[in-house]
Specification:
alpha/beta, Rossmann fold, 5-stranded parallel beta sheet, elongated, Helicase, Ruva Protein, domain 3
């Protein structure tokens, strides 16, 4: 509900305005002077200030100027004498949001207050979204607020200030290269190159040349010298993805390059100094590979100075919906389609799915859904078949001949909204954003369902 300060040194006027506004659903705080209003603002939040222009001591115009200077987010409505055009203009120039002439028509004042409150809310929402965007930019393409991801963010923040070698582990599709880029972008090397290579994608015979370069004539078709990726990444970061796939024969050469800070191009006798920060990643268990003699123990300890384990998407709770909403906006822009959110039923399917392909699979799912969408909300029919046919924990058939739990659309929506609210730790503004609703609509739904605290 909108809280309004009503400021006037005439008690009868204050009582009249207060009574009329209360009947229209406003919370009113009566104040007898501008000084009282300024003092109250330090102790209480307020959405709109309504002040008379002519008061003893501090005038309404002076109060307006003080509020605009100290709390520009709070709109001020000034009550002026009928036909006093010059004073009304003066109030607007002083920063007042609006003015209402006396004798006061309560309905006209109520309309002005609602507009002022909506404008304040809009300004606050714009500011919040800017902060969210800035925060998202600060974390690159990383999205999510789950405890597991908070630990990842903390590790990134700590390791970015150093040149320590980093090993990122996690299932395929969890975003290991995104984390590597984020480490680079936050480091002192951010102005240098970020060079990435997938060790599993380069044939074993060519990977050495790819990493260290080669001299002219080193092998057939080596018609000229070529810099390797270590040299190309000089002053920046080299990211070796899927390092667990690197051949054993090449591993001691990599270890020597890291220890000596020098590389020797294939076919060359000269060594080239390098200044590179190494970040590696794998979806394999290197501890088991070391035990099985499939990965060198000395290299393992050399690359595992700082370990950042990435959680699978199924372990990130409500991050699924946050990521989905983020991706949905991106693909809606790419396809130039007005798709703003997920239907409750579609969101239920996303939350129930196991996501073996992790964030990459979620991205593919949302790209497909937006491309096929016919409405402003993604429907179950827009999802891939394996998600459409999948059962959720709330609709799985019970043992024997018992029927599955059949839910009304209203109940599906209620459960979905409450799940999102829980995932957002009770923050209704964040939950409204994930749901694609404005905050007032979310409040009305919660009120209808009798949800007051969460």
């Amino acid at each position: 509900m909108t809280k309004v300060f009503v400021v006037d040194d005439e008690k009868e006027m204050v009582d009249l305005v207060q009574l009329g506004l209360k009947k229209r659903g406003f919370i009113c705080v009566p104040l007898a002077s501008g000084a009282d209003a300024l003092a109250a603002m330090t102790e209480h939040d307020v959405d709109v200030v309504v002040t008379d222009l002519n008061m003893k001591g501090m005038t309404g115009l002076e109060l307006c100027q003080r509020i605009v200077a100290d709390r520009p987010d709070i709109p001020v409505i000034v009550l002026t004498a009928f036909g006093s055009f010059e004073t009304a203009v003066g109030a607007i120039r002083a920063g007042a949001y609006d003015f209402v002439t006396k004798p006061v028509e309560i309905e006209a004042l109520a309309i002005a207050i609602r507009r002022a409150a909506e404008k304040r809310q809009l300004r606050g929402e714009v500011k919040r979204l800017r902060e969210v965007v800035a925060s998202t930019r600060g974390r690159g393409a990383l999205v999510g607020g789950s405890p597991a991801m908070q630990q990842v963010y903390q590790l990134i923040e700590q390791v970015s200030a150093t040149d320590a070698t980093v090993l990122i582990t996690g299932e395929s599709g969890t975003g290991k290269e995104i984390v590597a880029r984020e480490i680079h972008n936050r480091s002192r090397r951010k102005d240098g190159p970020f060079v990435a290579v997938n060790c599993a994608a380069v044939p074993e015979a060519l990977l050495e040349s790819e990493l260290f370069g080669h001299a002219k004539g080193a092998f057939t078709d080596a018609k000229q010298s070529r810099q390797g990726l270590f040299q190309q990444a000089h002053g920046g970061t080299l990211f070796l993805d899927e390092i667990g796939e690197m051949a054993l024969a090449l591993q001691p050469k990599l270890l020597r390059a890291l220890q000596e800070r020098k590389v020797r191009p294939v076919g060359s006798e000269a060594e080239v100094p390098i200044d590179v920060r190494l970040v590696t990643a794998t979806n394999r268990d290197l501890d088991e590979m070391v035990e099985a003699k499939a990965f060198r123990e000395d290299l393992y300890y050399r690359i595992n100075v700082i370990h950042i384990p990435l959680p699978p998407l199924r372990a990130r709770g409500g991050d699924v919906l946050m990521l989905a909403q983020h991706m949905l906006r991106q693909y809606a822009a790419v396809f130039d389609k007005k798709v703003v959110g997920l239907s409750p039923a579609a969101a239920e399917r996303l939350m129930a799915y196991d996501w073996p392909g992790n964030v990459r699979e979620l991205g593919n799912c949302l790209e497909r859904a937006v491309a096929l969408a016919h409405f402003e909300e993604i429907q179950v029919e827009d999802l891939p078949e394996k998600m459409r046919k999948g059962t959720t924990p709330r609709t799985t058939a019970l043992a024997g001949n018992e029927m599955p739990e059949l839910l009304t659309l209203e109940e599906v929506e209620r459960r979905h909204v409450l799940r999102v609210l829980e995932a957002c730790h009770g923050n209704r503004t964040d939950a409204a954003k994930v749901l694609g609703l404005d905050r007032k609509t979310l409040y009305r739904k919660l009120l209808r369902w009798g949800v007051n605290d969460m």
